[in-house]
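HUMAN: Now follow token order:
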Amino acid sequence: MDLSVVSQEGEISHLKVKGRVTQRQLMSSTDVLVDRLGLEVYKGKVLLDMREAEFLDSSGVSWLLIAHKRFREQGGRFVLYAVAPMVLNVLRVLKMQLVFDLSDTYDEALKKVQGDPA
């Protein structure tokens, strides 16, 4: 998995994930979000572009759930958007669309973190 920072403006960070989101890719770091954005990441607002995520296994879902929980606990916001069809199917089978903030586009995701319930 390649997780890169696309942009940072104020408290809003825009990240992009590319490749397979699996245990093997997540083992290299204790917390890839902290590695990319610093210790205060969970107090901010993060938009995660998932259009190039090729695959998501149970450890990838677990990583997303843990991140989602940390954002909620620390007052931040985590929105996944443009989720690749295969990954979206995994999330739907697990009913994760009821848990995660999902948006179709960057603009919709941005409105959500700016306070618009879009």
Remarks:
- The chain has a mean pLDDT of 91.
- The longest strand covers residues 45-56.
- The beta strands are 2-9, 12-21, 45-56, 77-81, 101-103.
